[in-house]
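Tokens as discussed.
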């Protein structure tokens, strides 16, 4: 039985693709970033749970390091996130799939999209490196897509002023400032980014060249992309200090939730 207090489900079920195939070079030597642990649990497990926590998400596709698909599969099993069910979009349970990734984030996302069964009309793309995204942020993105947006990005205002520079040839050399965009008009974007599936697939088929997020590919198609409020806990674990912050967030949650 569906919960009457929730909006009735849209016809299209929601799948999430989690690119987790990166090396984590900026984190320093060690295992691929998505397999590093926070309080003993691999980052990608935190991320997979965060997406599965949304009632709307019925399939999570984890894009594993190219030679790590078997390891990721057994990690998911070991943490009670099994694959092999029948994805139905009921919101009652979430199915998990693992595919090997590629050399760039873009390629990894495309490999994840290729693995989606046809019934999924809405797709979220979520970095494994953002393990602590709250479910309310996930749901806000899904709601905006279900309300008709073809591309939705959670984002936050910036704390720092941003300068555009002429990048120096050697690292550490002074770099001339070219411009200072008005900070009030800038947003730092996060994931999950949410899409009408056909729009995202078309973007991946059409756009070539280096990009750092999926929404920018949709922008290059000339399609409208909208921003919804992000969350400070959806930050990306990039450098060693971010691991300290992530574990502090988990400790605060345990204190607040009593587990
Ligand atoms: N990613 C991926 N495939 C790649 C590169 C990145 O699936 N070939 C994923 C990462 O696993 C991560 C997300 O894309 O979840 C965001 O990338 P980033 O934070 O840059 O992670 P890494 O590429 O692993 O880190 P670094 O750039 O420091 O090596
Ligand atoms: Mg990277």
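Sequence:
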């Amino acid at each position: 039985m569906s919960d009457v207090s929730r909006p009735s489900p849209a016809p299209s079920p929601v799948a999430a693709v989690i690119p987790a195939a990166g090396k984590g070079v900026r984190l320093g030597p060690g295992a691929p970033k998505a397999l590093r642990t926070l309080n003993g649990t691999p980052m990608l497990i935190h991320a997979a749970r965060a997406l599965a926590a949304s009632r709307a998400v019925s399939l999570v596709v984890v894009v594993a390091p190219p030679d790590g698909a078997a390891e990721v599969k057994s990690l998911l099993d070991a943490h009670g996130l099994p694959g092999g069910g029948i994805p139905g979009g009921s919101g009652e349970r979430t199915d998990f799939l693992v595919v090997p990734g590629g050399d760039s984030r873009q390629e990894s996302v495309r490999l994840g999209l290729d693995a989606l069964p046809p019934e999924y009309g809405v797709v979220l793309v979520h970095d494994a490196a953002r393990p602590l995204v709250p479910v309310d942020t996930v749901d806000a993105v899904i709601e905006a897509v279900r309300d008709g947006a073809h591309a939705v990005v959670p984002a936050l205002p910036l704390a720092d002023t941003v300068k555009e520079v002429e990048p120096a040839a050697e690292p550490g050399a002074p770099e001339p400032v070219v411009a200072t965009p008005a900070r009030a008009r800038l947003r730092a974007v996060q994931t999950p980014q949410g899409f009408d599936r056909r729009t995202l697939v078309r973007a991946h088929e059409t756009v070539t060249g280096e990009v750092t997020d999926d929404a920018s590919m949709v922008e290059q198609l000339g399609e409208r992309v909208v921003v919804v409020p992000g969350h400070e806990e959806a930050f990306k674990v990039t450098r060693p200090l971010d691991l300290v912050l992530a574990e502090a967030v988990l400790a605060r949650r345990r204190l607040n939730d009593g587990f």
